[in-house]
Design goal:
Blueprint: H1 17-28, E1 33-37, E2 46-49, E3 55-61, H2 66-84, E4 92-98, E5 101-107, H3 119-130, H4 159-165, H5 167-181, E6 190-193, E7 201-203, E8 209-212, E9 218-221, H6 224-237, H7 241-254, H8 257-278, H9 281-294
Antiparallel strand pairs: 1-2, 2-3, 3-5, 4-5, 6-9, 7-8
Helix pairs in contact: 4-5, 4-8, 5-8, 6-7, 6-8, 8-9
Length: about 300
């Protein structure tokens, strides 16, 4: 059966940077100079310059609710904890409601996204994640990041996309929900980056990591979840087999099988939902093949 476009949820709106810069000026008198688009990203980011000449990175969160503001302040607070430990994460310089969304201006860290992804970079990424161990041990008020295996999350991990796309995605959704009936959580005391992949990393000209960005999704939980996100990304990039196998072996040695199955169920749902709503059928086919290889309930 062909997909029913009318039943598939809408894509996440991309950043309209000109509109947002104008809204910040009109609403708060904040004057930012638009420098240009930041590379990568599915929703968009832009480089901006403050009147002082300092550079920043402008992003948005797609509502202007008090709850969104509180979540952004919590992110800024946790990144402050990480920076105090010497981790290369950005400072939040502005959180402001404007134009129906929340604008965020982050510190622009040095470096650029890596041009190539090989064993040397992956080894650095694994080492970086180990620095997150126990970073949020004292933040007992924070719940582990939900995996959304039995219900949709607003914005992503939408079950409806898989339900209405085709028979393959409906079968996958059934498998995800079945895992969700008894799934382990991602609980732990570590800092977790929920979208950890090379596109959210900056490196210098020698290939050394200078920044880890895009912390819209983070949690207090198991740092190995971030490395399983990376493993899914490496599969899509068709990274070298030895590099991928080495990472998979490290994850499997560190994570209990039931917990790893839950992580993979979440990522199967997340990635397939996203490509259904934001990309074409060819990309859906690619991700269904990756999921068939990595998620075996």
């Amino acid at each position: 059966m062909n997909p029913d476009p009318a039943s598939i949820p809408a894509p996440t709106p991309r950043l309209d940077v000109v509109r947002l810069v104008d809204a910040l000026s009109r609403t708060h008198g904040i004057e930012l100079e638009l420098v240009g688009p930041a590379p990568g990203g599915e929703v968009g980011a832009a480089f901006v310059r403050w009147p002082s000449g300092r550079m920043g990175v402008l992003t948005q969160v797609s509502d202007d609710s008090p709850a969104a503001a509180a979540a952004l302040r919590a992110t800024a607070d946790v990144l402050g904890v990480a920076r105090a430990r010497g981790l290369p994460v950005p400072r939040y310089d502005l959180i402001a409601a404007a134009g129906g969304v929340h604008a965020v201006v982050q510190e622009r860290l040095p470096g650029a996204p890596p041009r190539t992804v090989g064993q040397a970079l992956v080894a650095q990424l694994v080492a970086a994640v180990q620095q997150w161990t126990g970073l949020l041990a004292e933040r007992t008020e924070l719940a582990p990041p939900p995996l959304y295996l039995t219900e949709s999350r607003p914005g992503f991990c939408l079950h409806e996309s898989l339900q209405h796309y085709d028979a393959r995605t409906r079968r996958l959704l059934g498998q995800v929900r079945e895992v969700g009936r008894t799934a382990a959580s991602a609980a732990g005391t570590d800092l977790v980056h929920l979208d950890f992949h090379p596109g959210n990393v900056l490196v210098d000209t020698a290939g050394r990591i200078t920044g880890i960005v895009d912390w819209d999704g983070w949690g207090r939980g198991d740092r190995w979840f971030s490395l399983e996100v990376l493993a899914f990304d490496l599969a899509r990039r068709r990274a070298g087999a030895a590099t991928r196998s080495r990472l998979d072996e490290r994850i499997a040695a560190a994570v209990a099988p039931d917990r790893l199955l839950a992580y993979r169920a979440h990522l199967a749902l997340r990635q397939v939902d996203w490509v259904i709503r934001h990309h074409g059928p060819a990309e859906v086919d690619v991700w269904l093949a990756i999921v068939a290889d990595r998620f075996r309930p």
